[in-house]
Amino acid sequence: MAGVDGGILFPAERLRGWTEEIMQRVGVDRQDAVLLTDSMIEANLRGVDTHGITRMLCVYVERIEKGVMSAATRLDVVREKASTVLIDCHNSIGQMGAAKAMTMTIEKAAHTGVAFSAVSHSNHYGMAAYWAMRALPRGMIGFSSTNAPAAMAPTGGRTALFGTNPFAVAIPADRELPVVLDLATTVVARGRINLYAKQDRPLEPGWAFDDRGVPTTDPHAALRGLLAPIGGYKGYGIALAIDFICGILTGSNYGAHFPGFLADNMVEPTDVGSVFAAVNVESFMEPAEFTAAVDRAVEEIRNSAKAEGAERIYIPGEIEFATRAERLAKGIPIPSPVVDDFVSLGNRLGVPFPR
Amino acid sequence: MAGVDGGILFPAERLRGWTEEIMQRVGVDRQDAVLLTDSMIEANLRGVDTHGITRMLCVYVERIEKGVMSAATRLDVVREKASTVLIDCHNSIGQMGAAKAMTMTIEKAAHTGVAFSAVSHSNHYGMAAYWAMRALPRGMIGFSSTNAPAAMAPTGGRTALFGTNPFAVAIPADRELPVVLDLATTVVARGRINLYAKQDRPLEPGWAFDDRGVPTTDPHAALRGLLAPIGGYKGYGIALAIDFICGILTGSNYGAHFPGFLADNMVEPTDVGSVFAAVNVESFMEPAEFTAAVDRAVEEIRNSAKAEGAERIYIPGEIEFATRAERLAKGIPIPSPVVDDFVSLGNRLGVPFPR
Hints:
The structure is a homodimer. The first copy, chain A, is of the alpha+beta class. Chain A has 3 domains: 8-65 and 322-349, Malate/L-lactate/L-sulpholactate dehydrogenase, four-helix barrel (Hypothetical Oxidoreductase Yiak, Chain: A, domain 1, Orthogonal Bundle), CATH 1.10.1530.10; 72-186 and 230-303, Ribosomal Protein S8, Chain: A, domain 1; 188-228, Wheat Germ Agglutinin (Isolectin 2), domain 1 (2-Layer Sandwich), CATH 3.30.60.50. The first copy, chain A, has 11 helices and 12 strands. Chain A starts with 7 loop residues before the first strand and ends in a 6-residue tail after the last helix. The mean pLDDT of chain A is 95. At the A-B interface, strand 4, strand 7, helix 8, strand 11 and helix 9 of A face strand 4, strand 7, helix 8, strand 11 and helix 9 of B.
């Protein structure tokens, strides 16, 4: 879980309105600001604060102000077939390329059964699940993945060559919540290592390597070192496949060629590539029959015998939906230092943060 | 690695000819026997002996002789769109459904850019990589996955609800070998636990759970218990998504509904579902430009700094290609007890095993 413990609670709609104004002040079109803001607020609502305004707003603003990311959206369809499209994002905001790609993917899948699209020369696109979930209202299975600057070495190596390279899958249900899987190919995120380092707390085995490529439980050595992939060489393979498909196939950055990410590099564009897919359920089964079967399978999993010491079994995405309901009711927690940042940002741009 | 240590070496072509004869003796058409045999011999050549004749031949023969799997192939296209197809395998040999599905997938992807197909009511289809790699000669990226009888519990549970649910991705290169990723969503295969149990050797932490759902390093407790998914809840999520897409979307078995697998159940059909996809590289980039870029990326990974104690960095699939070259030259190792089984089988069916 990437949630923030503690912090001051703000109603989502108040944060939304303010964020939309902020993005427009730095030159983003109104409708683009609305979409970008929604992707961040949804991340916060789902407890994925690493992709919410909490972490991303000031970064996006700074990148735009420094000219490292374009405020104006320019998207060109470079190649297109009945079931595929390649969109050049021209260093526009990543969410803009993703939205157009996923919209086209869903339209194409409605006609041909499946579609797969890619965005090149893009930026951080937010939470992978946000894009996969766009297939759900159309009764489709959605998929998205992106590459990212290197944080992980290949098995046997000690040079960071692969990002956390996340991917998301969204599967529609009927009465049950949709199944929404969204995971990085590292065992834990760098943010978690940071947290342990601040607390001088040893990491669990299998989370990280030091800068010699040797497994470590020292959080400080891990910060100078590398994140471990899930399942060892298996996660390395998954991260590599995602990097090759998102990065190389789109002609974007890959491997060690990234100039650093987000706050770590305010000089060069990130130039990531992202991919999107949708499978039209009705090309395989009556949609109502499918979602009813998903409901039954979800119930079977939830009601299966618990492991000793486990209180319940969660379906992928279930915790995020619960967090969303809670945060819609009670508000989104923003840590005090971030509130201070928002107050400064708001004052500087003439859009006071609504405390 | 699923390779067999030791054993008697036999030339691949001698094993191939004998296996083709054996399959025909139990009622499989000549051309189907050739394909099925090739899928097994290729697995042996690649060192994936768990999917070679070593483990599968006697099992397939017994299933056919007991009427649990059909010797005759019957494949019906149930639903078809420009980029998708659903094929009912009618309990035919899994490789037959897979071959037709992957052939149609590649043809469709050549026209529309991408295609995704599924086979329902199928059987064990061999090595996932075998199907993904069929996209390579066409310059496409291939993908395949299948569900399988339950061996893994959901996170927090202690009932086996998901199979090892493997998937494979094959990416073409130019001068370099293609990248071929083929992995189960469990940290290790059950075969590895078996091996450790025979040697009374403790498992590594994180490999398995006992029957209460508690992590264990006791191989005997693990055999009565459950395999651990890669990356904990992440691997559970991947296995679930594969089960839902391969099993539920095709109307085949899923979750705990499997009647046991292969040698463990010689009474009922397995009824698995499998999926296949191909992405036509030229829908995104000039193929020669892509494969040259893959070559460069592969070289960058291979030549990156080694971890302390590591001798080299392998690209996914590289070890299997090396094993294939070695076994083509020196022969495929068959353990002595398996040779005895082959001799008995050959004598019984009137096709003496060529020792």
